[in-house]
């Protein structure tokens, strides 16, 4: 077997809440900057699992297990303030949102770079969430079949 090493590049995207710099190689990663007082969309990824590491600032994380999508009463969401050095593990199918209590930098390492299977449930900035209802119904059906 001939293993190799290579150089890659990154891409910066401006978001309404800050920006993200992403890269793909053996793993996918992002440096996410969230401006104080702003928050990301409430979302879940169908296939992608993530580890979120707070490098600086302070974030308020709202998160839930995948069963929350089909049974809010039996599986309520949770929230925790995460300071530098803290992490949030998010498995595929689990909804979450990050709010910046201070200007914050969060590193995301994920299992895949695919954005195609991201379902946005709520968004503060007017970005389209119409597809979320349909995708959410499909996802609830998949959960029940497990």
Structural key phrases:
single chain; 146 residues; mainly beta; Jelly Rolls; seven-stranded antiparallel beta sheet; two-stranded antiparallel sheet; 9 strands
Layout of SSEs?
Layout: E1 10-15, E2 18-24, E3 28-34, E4 42-45, E5 50-63, E6 78-82, E7 87-90, E8 96-110, E9 118-122, H1 130-145
Antiparallel strand pairs: 1-2, 2-3, 3-8, 4-9, 5-6, 5-7, 5-8
What's the short version?
With 146 residues, the protein is mainly beta.
CATH architecture tag? Sandwich
The proportion of strand residues reads over 45%
Please name the fourth-level CATH homologous superfamily: Jelly Rolls
What's the story with the biggest beta sheet?
A: 7 strands, antiparallel
The total count of strands amounts to: 9
In words, what does this structure look like?
The structure is a single chain. This protein is mainly beta and 146 residues long. It has one domain: Jelly Rolls (Sandwich). The longest helix has 16 residues, at 130-145. The protein starts with 9 loop residues before the first strand and ends with a helix. The chain is globular, with a radius of gyration of 16 Å. Helix content is 11%, strand content 46%. It has one helix and nine strands; from the N terminus they run βββββββββα.
């Amino acid at each position: 077997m001939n293993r190799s090493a290579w150089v890659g590049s990154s891409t910066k995207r401006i978001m309404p809440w800050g920006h993200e710099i992403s890269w793909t190689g053996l793993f996918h990663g992002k440096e996410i900057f969230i401006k104080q007082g702003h928050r990301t969309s409430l979302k879940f990824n169908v296939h992608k699992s993530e580890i979120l590491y707070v490098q600086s600032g302070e974030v308020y994380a709202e998160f839930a297990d995948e069963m929350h999508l089909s049974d809010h009463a039996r599986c309520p969401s949770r929230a925790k303030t995460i300071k530098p050095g803290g992490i949030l593990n998010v498995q595929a199918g689990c909804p979450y949102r990050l709010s910046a209590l201070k200007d914050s930098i969060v590193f995301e390492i994920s299992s895949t770079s695919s954005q195609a299977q991201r379902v946005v449930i709520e968004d503060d900035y007017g970005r389209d969430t119409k597809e979320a209802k349909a995708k959410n119904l499909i996802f609830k059906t998949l959960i029940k079949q497990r």
